[in-house]
Write a structure and sequence with these properties.
The chain is mainly alpha-helical. The protein has a single domain, classed as Orthogonal Bundle (Cytochrome Bc1 Complex, Chain D, domain 2), CATH 1.10.760. The chain is 55% helix and 0% strand. It has 14 helices and no strands. The longest helix has 30 residues. It is elongated and about 95 Å long.
Amino acid sequence: MKELKVLAVVVALTLITYWGVEPFAHSQMHPHVDAADFKFKDLKEDVADVTSLKGNATAGEALVTANCTACHSIKTKGYPEIMDHASSAAAYGVTPPDLGSAGKLYDASYLAAFIKNPAKASQVEHKFVDGRTHPMPGYDWMQPQEIADMVAYLQSIAPEEMSNKEVFTDACQRCHSIKYADMQKGTMAAFTPDDNIKAYMGKLPPDLSQHIKSRGHEYLETFINKPQKHLEGTAMPRVGLNEESQAQVITYLEEVGDSSKKQREELGPKFLIYLVIFAIFAILWKKSKWRDVH
């Protein structure tokens, strides 16, 4: 009976710590933020004149070719990078993204808003003050129909399917490395050289190999969707990924940084059952050995 009382005290203290102290500590370290907004409601008014129109992909191709391919590659359409990563990063501060997958990765409203005003759409206006300008010029002087046509073209050339790694590469690897994905060959290093990205962002963006463990799924989902929720004034832009693409990025982070998650979760219940059975046998063994003493 004494052992059961001790066990009850241990269980009670554990539950108080787990359900009381730990959640409080977590709430202080990671205050609650609103859920991820994949409809980008704050941009709706800015692009209402664009999203109400039906885009013409053929017209959009001419506009994208004339206005975008001087800086951006579209490898799937035969527009290779004008410069290598190092040269383009030196010119713009960060390697410009390939546009071949933009229509699949990014929300259409976000794409339209970004074309009109990149700094505002990505929520980094605070970085570009006192004469500093975003490396991509805004096209708010364009007619709404022209922007709708550009978005339609980007959607028309986007691949139907992309692997988790491909989504991560196009969405994140311009700035972030994930070295544990390929430690020997180094092919998952950030495209933008360290010196350039540090000057552009203010500090070196972290390697994301273990972020799924250090930050957790919930934090990453809200942070990628809108970094300002967690770090007001951060230099990391709002990426604008749609829900499917963001889920693929987080899944890839799990594949690299927490590959044993599934096995660990499957082992947990089995281990608890083992402990219960072991505890029963331990109690019975103790009673058999101490029966005469008591």
